[in-house]
């Protein structure tokens, strides 16, 4: 006859099957919540990605070659800035813009590295700055009257500085703009060219 050791057999306490079921349910709920979270995050990233790529926040925004830009904005070679709306940019062909301001009529098909990528958001209170005024050849913010030269240097109004900008580089002839880092516009008093006085020229905005 065998004797059972003491404590052998049914033990008091919560039933083993009951604990397992609770644990299983807890894990199932956890996995379900995790999957839903992943699904939500994936959907959000997919939704936002096309807006980041090719717009603001893109360190490698490819605008195309000088010929590509001129294809979209033929006046670019005669100094009218190219507007790239997705990233709220003015892309300025600097030698052509200078010729336009000076009234020489000279054209520049390919300015090489001499471009400026200006942020259209006015550094005063953030309004969208319209295309260059064809009377003054300045950018004129319609909200409170800040005025900037074609290089975004401030000439009038309440803005605390010139228009902000983004760095650019050229890779195999393609202009690449880093819209992930905004660079503060030049301080008041900066004059690269165009030293006409506000009161001496006609304007589009008051
Ligand atoms: S937002 Fe442009 S001048 Fe105020």
Could you describe the 3D structure shown?
- This protein is α+β, with helices and mostly antiparallel strands and 206 residues long.
- The protein has 3 helices and 9 strands.
- A 6-stranded antiparallel beta sheet has the order 1-9-8-4-3-2. A 3-stranded antiparallel beta sheet has the order 5-6-7, with no helix packed on it.
- The chain binds FE2/S2 (inorganic) cluster.
- Residues 122, 124-127, 141, 143-146, 157-159 line the site of FE2/S2 (inorganic) cluster.
Bound molecules: FE2/S2 (inorganic) cluster
Specify the helix fraction band: 25-40%
The radius of gyration computed from the alpha-carbon positions, rounded to a whole number of angstroms, is 31 Å
Low-confidence stretches: 1-7
**Helix and strand element order:** HEHEEHEEEEEE
Shape: elongated
Q: Tell me the span between the first and last alpha carbons.
A: 112 Å
Number of distinct helices: 3
Layout of helices and strands:
Blueprint: H1 16-52, E1 61-64, H2 66-72, E2 82-84, E3 89-93, H3 94-102, E4 115-119, E5 139-140, E6 147-148, E7 154-156, E8 165-171, E9 174-183
Antiparallel strand pairs: 1-9, 2-3, 3-4, 4-8, 5-6, 6-7, 8-9
The site of FE2/S2 (inorganic) cluster has 13 residues, from loops.
Give a quick set of tags describing it.
alpha+beta, 6-stranded antiparallel beta sheet, 26% helix, binds FE2/S2 (inorganic) cluster
In short:
The chain has 206 residues and is an alpha+beta fold.
């Amino acid at each position: 006859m065998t004797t059972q050791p003491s404590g052998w057999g049914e033990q008091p306490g919560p039933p083993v099957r009951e604990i397992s079921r609770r644990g299983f349910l807890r894990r199932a709920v956890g996995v379900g919540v995790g999957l839903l979270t992943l699904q939500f995050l994936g959907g959000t990233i997919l939704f936002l990605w096309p807006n980041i790529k090719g717009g603001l926040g893109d360190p490698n925004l490819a605008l195309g070659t000088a010929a590509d830009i001129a294809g979209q904005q033929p006046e670019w070679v005669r100094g009218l800035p190219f507007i790239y709306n997705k990233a709220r940019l003015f892309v300025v062909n600097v030698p052509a813009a200078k010729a336009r301001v000076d009234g020489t009529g000279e054209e520049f098909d390919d300015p090489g590295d001499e471009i400026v990528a200006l942020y259209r958001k006015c550094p005063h209170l953030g309004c969208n700055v319209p295309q260059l005024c064809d009377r003054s050849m300045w950018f004129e913010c319609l909200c409170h009257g800040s005025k900037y030269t074609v290089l975004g240097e401030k000439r009038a109004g309440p803005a605390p500085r010139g228009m902000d900008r983004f760095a650019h580089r050229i890779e195999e002839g393609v202009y690449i703009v880093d819209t992930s880092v905004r660079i503060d516009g030049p301080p008041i008093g900066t004059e690269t060219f165009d030293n006409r006085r506000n009161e001496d020229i006609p304007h589009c905005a008051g």
